[in-house]
Amino acid sequence: MKNTISERIFDFLKNFPPFHVLSEEQLYTISKNVKVVYLQKDKYIFKSNEKIHNHFYVVKDGAIGIFKEDNGVLVDECDEGDIFGLRALIRKGNYILSAKAIEESMLYSISSELLEGIINTNAQANKFLLSSFIANTQDSYSGENKTSVFGKLENLKKNESNFTEVQSAKYSKHPITCSPNVSIKEAAQTMSAKKVGSIVITNQNKPIGIVTDKDLRTKIATGQFSIEDNVQSIMSSPVITYPENITVAEAQIAMLQHRITHLCITKDGTHDSDLVGILSEHDIVVIHGNNPSVLIKEVKRAKSAIALQYIRSKAQQLLEGYIKQNIPIDFISKVISAITTAITQKSISLALEEMNAPPPVNFSWLAIGSQGRKEQLLLTDQDNALVFENIPSGDYNKTKAYFLELSQKITEKLNIVGYELCPAKMMASNPQWCLSLEEWKQQFNNWITKPDEDKIMLCTIFFDYDIVYGDEQLVDKMSQSIFQSINRYEIFLNFLGLNALKNPPPLSFFRQFLVEQSGEHKDQFDIKARALMPLVDAARLLILSHNIKSFNNTILRFEKLAHIEPQNKDLYLLCIDAFKTLLHFRTQYGLRNNDSGRFINLKSLSKADRLKLKRCFKPIKEIQELIRIRFNLSQML
Amino acid sequence: MFNWLQHKNYPGFWNTYLSHFKAKKKVELAMTRFVIFDTETTGLTIKEDRILSIGAISVTSNTMDVADSLELYIKQDKFNPKTAEIHGILKDGNIKKIDESEAIIQFLDYIKDSILIAHHAAFDVAILNESLKRMELPKLKNKVLDTGILFKKTNLCLNRDKLYALDELCDVFHLKKHDRHTASGDAYITAIVFMKIIASITEARKISIQDLFFNSNRRGLL
To answer: How far is the C-alpha of A571 from the C-alpha of A578, rounded, in Å?
Structure first.
């Protein structure tokens, strides 16, 4: 029997999650049983403590506000396609929050029995409902249903990793091994017989070392060791081990980090478990030709900035591929940062070759801002600084002139590669940011002890530095001095805290109120200032307040924080998730529009993406609340 | 009290329909089942034209229940190509069609004693009564409200002498004109218009069902 009205409802619902993943039949059943509710402005759908209805609601037209009844705080705003009233249904308790029409509204109400039908039969829809349930759970950290919620969350995570992670790397399942007491000659014979380039030395099937063709060349052929010596004398030990489910991206990073070409795969990923396979760089190359280790090798061989530019464009393609494959963003950022670092190092050595003389004293090249945090994925402006050793004042002008000239060459090369010159001149070629260690110390001390808005802004850029090239000791001394200054002048952290709260997250994408009101990016959402920076600022502030050095990456900072503040672990983990999602968004949109990805046109977002983005705002709100309380900022505001 | 109506020759479905009216219930506005309906016809001449389709949906307490809706298409001997251009129902389409009498039986079973709502209801009721007459049955017993007249009770109505078309009410209430000129589509839109009218009237004052039946010209006393 034809049913025009339910067809119309079907057409509406099918655009919104979780309905979009339902089968046509499932959705049609729902559409035929929807109740259409009309509400005038300011009418309540339900009030807190009210007994639950047998329905949950989808906003068809208008807008519904979700309030905390006791203090009238607006917790959430639902507009077209948003679902509410679900949490109480799953919880099977009274409503905790109130729902009121903040505009004249039409709702579709859907019965809980139909909902249960979906949950039981459609895993994807189930996942969505649960995650929206969790995101809507304001007090999930202290909620009375903690166990059940997090029990489900675990399942969810499991699903998610299946979904986003790249396939496991294919490794050789029959590694060639020998025992530690054989001679080098015997080991080499085995390798030749099996036609392999490496052999793992095992003790009771636990990997203890590895010998590769390279070892035979550098240690035997050179006469350093005799072929009759024990294989243990030349093996590399310990081996780097990973569990069986290692992903391609992880393997690449591990090899890059350790500068090795073989990984041992063991049962549980540790040295103490059985060897199950070996993964060589070659295996990875086979998987895809355009891979980071090849690119880094090319960087090392490059002889000009133009060559580097070409490599960077290949890295861009790599990035696009990663984003398409949904490879976890923290892996992607590690790979891209490694390439950026290598390119910068190469630019520095190319520039040094062009100089007439070697550097008069030791120096360090620092990446600052997002590159310093290793969070720069797209080609954005370059932000950098240079520190050189303290020198007698008589030599100062000459030395500074040398490093300014060097910096000029480096920044020009980076510009050719594609990292545009910073319009605000936050570059080592600017005399302000090319200073001796002592000058840097004084400058930081000045910023910390006499903070004003500009200085705090500079702190947020220059505190996130990462050494790219040069003398690490110089940088260590700089860090120490910063912490000494902060310890002496602790109120600085409160100023930094105020800055971290400058951009409160929006509650939702309700109407226009959170987009840029004017200018070039009118009606677009500034994902950097509104969502990413609040998390970056929060992580920096909190890690500084714990006196922890050398954690410059936002994800690593939150991980560290979760470790040292177990009571806030849940929140910090949510912040990590939010940060990853946001960074992924920014990269995805930047690639799509070939820009920095900073401004997102909300209209171009699918409903699912909007919800995904919206979920990121909750932890931002909570971490800002934590900062407000911890640093007593209510009084300062 | 309806005994005099229960002619011994009336079929069972009619007697069942009448039985719903027996119990004299005093019902709250919030509990009342309204049936909003629309008919598509071969033309506007009540005596000659025929019903092509009936669409109806119920509203109780400002909530439309899609599960409690009706959509009927009626077999035709008579076909008017001119009106087919408006309603899009072909003489021999793919949609399942039933006989006129079967449609009336289903419609009566569906509406029971509910208050009927239609836009320019007089026409729809008259053409239904004409069908009933062909089946040798009396007229509909239900109370009927016309959204075109109800609208005049609201403060949104600027000219109470004007005859408002459904399209004009759509504009007043900012409704999209989806599925216009299908019986179900018009019934759905009329239902929304009805809910908005009721909301608009009740916003000003508490009213009872009886108030809805007052003549629009007496708005001042309402």
So the answer is: 10
One-character DSSP codes across A217-282? IIIITTSSS-TTSBGGGT-B-SPPEE-TT-BHHHHHHHHHHHT-SEEEEESSSSTTS-EEEEEEHH
Contacts of A215 (CB under 8 A, 6+ apart): A234, A235, A236
Test the A interface: residue of B53, B63, B96 with most A CBs within 10 Å: B63
Cα three-residue angle B92-B94-B97, rounded to 5 degrees: 70
Q: How many CA atoms lie within 13 A of A65 on its CB side?
A: 18
CA distance A403 to A361: 10
- As a whole number of angstroms, the distance between CA A305 and CA A411 comes to 11
The Cα B197–Cα B190 span in angstroms is 10
Q: Kindly report the pTM of this predicted structure.
A: 0.53
CA distance A284 to chain B (A): 56
Pairing relation of β-strands B51-60 and B33-41? antiparallel
Residue B199 touches partner A, C-beta closer than 8 Å: yes
Mean pLDDT of A464-493: 90
CA dist., res. A65 & res. A101, Å (int): 6
What six digits make up the tokens of B102?
A: 């079967």
Contact call for residues A26 and A58 (beta carbons, < 8 A): no
Q: Does B64 touch chain A (CB under 8 A)?
A: yes
ipTM of the complex: 0.85
CA distance A278 to A281: 10
- Residue A251's pLDDT band (boundaries 50, 70, 90)? confident
Cα separation, A155 vs A594, in Å, equals 36
Using pLDDT thresholds of 50, 70 and 90, give the confidence band for residue A152.
Answer: very low
Tell me, what's the pLDDT at B3? 56
User: Which of A4, A33, A36 is opposite residue B55, by nearest beta carbon?
Assistant: A4
**Spacing of C-alpha A417 from chain mean position:** 24
Would you call B62 and A9 a contact, using CB atoms and an 8 Å cutoff?
no
- 3-state secondary structure (DSSP) of residue A76: strand
Question: How far is the C-alpha of A607 from the C-alpha of B75, rounded, in Å?
Answer: 43
Q: pLDDT (tens digit, 9 = 90+) per residue, A414-432?
A: 999 988 888 888 899 999 9
CB contacts < 8 A (A, B): 65
**Minimal Cα distance from A4: which residue of B?**
B184
Find the residue in A nearest to B61 (Cα): A37
Q: Are A434 and A428 in contact (CB under 8 A)?
A: yes
CA distance A545 to chain B (A): 55
Tell me the chain B residues in contact with residue A3 when contact means C-beta distances shorter than 8 Å: 69, 71, 184
Instruction: Please name the residues in contact with A15: beta carbons below 8 A apart, sequence gap of 6 or more.
Output: A81, A607
Q: Which long-range contacts (CB under 8 A, 24 or more apart) does A608-611 make?
A: A608/A17, A608/A20, A609/A585, A610/A509, A611/A17, A611/A82, A611/A132, A611/A135
What whole-number percentage of chain A has pLDDT above 90?
29
Rounded Cα distance between A459 and A78, Å, is 38
Q: DSSP string covering chain B, please?
A: --GGG--TTS-HHHHHHHHTTTS-----GGGPEEEEEEEEES-S-TTT--EEEEEEEEEETTEEEEEEEEEEEB--SS--HHHHHHH---TT-SS--B-HHHHHHHHHHHHTTPEEEETTHHHHHHHHHHHHHHTT-----S-EEEHHHHGGGSTT-S-TTSPPPHHHHHHHTT---TTTTSHHHHHHHHHHHHHHHHHHHHHHS---HHHHTS-GGGGGG-
Q: Which residues of B touch A41 (CB under 8 A)?
A: none
Query: For the packed helices A292-301 and A305-324, what is the interaxial angle rounded to 10 degrees?
Result: 170
Residue bearing tokens 């007249």: B149
Max avg pLDDT among A75-79, A269-273, B78-82: A269-273
Summarize the confidence of residues A566-573 as an average pLDDT: 92
